[in-house]
Amino acid sequence: MRKDPEIQGNDSQTWTVKSRKKRFENSWLAIFEETTRLPNHKDFVFTIAHASNWVSIMPITKEGNFLLVEQYRPAWKTTSLEFPAGKIEGKESPNQAAIREMQEETGYIPGTLQFLYKARPVTWTTQWVYAFLAKNLEFSPRMADESEFITTVEVKPSEFERLVREERIVELQTIALFYYFTRAHDHTL
User: pLDDT band for position 183 (50/70/90)?
Assistant: First the structure.
């Protein structure tokens, strides 16, 4: 990796948090304002969300199709097609959360679950997302959360990019997981 010598102050030692105030908290997230001393010795207030880590799972059927879920997203005021995902609860491991979320959202559990990567979903939150590939799917009764009204949709890999262009698939982690799997690893489905 090449660093631009003109950009100074990216060493974490030069960024100092001077104060932190909680502005909001519920069972899903907490919002903080942090006053931070920048490398240029000026103070700036950053808004940071602390939320639970979560999992995103790319389920592939024996026919080589994706299982996506369609559910209403209140912030967007529309439904979204996306890979099953959800927060890691309590002392669950990411693997345990992936299996639970698959069952809750699709009615299937993976016979094979492969960890792919861990990433930060956006720059203003502390959370991590753990991405998985699920194969050899076995039917298991769906146990959706009470606030979830989900439809499982089978999508052919050849249809995925069209659904992105048509803005039927807009959730960033779903798009990233698709491209990671199909492009970076040159997998054929």
Answer: confident
